[in-house]
Amino acid sequence: MSGWSRRSGRLRRGGAARSHPPSPRLHTPTLATHATDAFTHSLQSAGLIGGILMPGVAAVVFFLTPKGTEVSNAAH
User: Fold this and answer.
1) 6-40 b/e with 16+ CB inside 10 Å = b?
2) Residue 12 φ then ψ, to 5°
3) Distance between terminal CA atoms of the chain?
């Protein structure tokens, strides 16, 4: 299979391109710190995006719902 080479910008043989060789040690404390920071950042981003989208969707639904619509007497 061919892989994309970052340095030359061309396809090369030998599988996926690697920017650097894998490290023999995992540096577990550093890895755990980065993983925790990435997880927290992703949750903050998702919350922010959801907090921005929800009022917009609520406004669209409010304006598209016909006047006089009754849902209080609806049966299952």
Assistant:
1) eeeeeeeeeeeeeeeeeeeeeeeeeeeeeeeeeee
2) -135, 160
3) 56
**Residue pointed to by tokens 């998702």:** 46
- Structure pTM? 0.49
Furthest CA-CA distance within the chain: 68
Residue 23 identity: S
What residue spans of 1-76 are helical by DSSP H? 28-64
Q: What is the pLDDT along the chain (76 residues), one digit of tens a residue?
A: 445 555 555 555 555 555 666 666 767 888 889 999 999 999 999 999 999 999 999 999 999 988 888 888 777 6
